Amino acid sequence: MKFTMIVVGLLGLFIAPGFANYNNYVNDDHNVAVSGQQSVSINNQHNVANVDNNNGWDSWNALWDYENSFAATRLFSKKSCIVHKMNRDVMPSLQDLDVLVKEEKGKEPGGPPRKELTYSINPTKVEDLNQFGTKIAGMCQGIPTYVAEEVPEPNQPLYSKKCYTANILWILRMSFCGTSVETF
């Protein structure tokens, strides 16, 4: 019995590095003298990345499904989920994300994120989540879900007042903008 426990323990030590999980602290722009924590989990076997931003009421969770080319962000303060196509030209590949996260680990924020994306949220709720794959359907199940379309760069200033912004470890800034305050 002791031998089995030792083998299982050693096996865990060798397998654990294969599941990348990185914690970084992020500053909160809305609260004074408070910071949140952001973690990135990369699962190469399932071809997904999961980003958790734990910052009180401004917490959010993002799931990047590289297999289906969709991403979803669950905004806890808005009690909603936003789904969009992944822009492979701007969003890092799973392997590049792993490298970038390791580079950023333990660093203080050094200016604005390297890349930015802005999305316009369609005010119509999604009826069938399965069209985005089982991973995103599982994450957004039971909460209002909306589809967002990427806004081309020249039009981005038009959305500056009605947006919810999610920074991914100073690598990428994603802004989700509604057509009205009620939408989002």
TrEMBL record:
Please verify whether the record's keywords include RNA-binding: no
Q: What is its main location?
A: cytoplasm
Alphabetical GO CC annotations of the entry are: extracellular region; Golgi apparatus; secretory granule
Residues annotated as domain BRICHOS: 54-148
Q: Name one Pfam family in it.
A: BRICHOS
| Family matches, as PROSITE patterns | BRICHOS (PS50869)
User: What protein name is recorded for this chain?
Assistant: Gastrokine-1
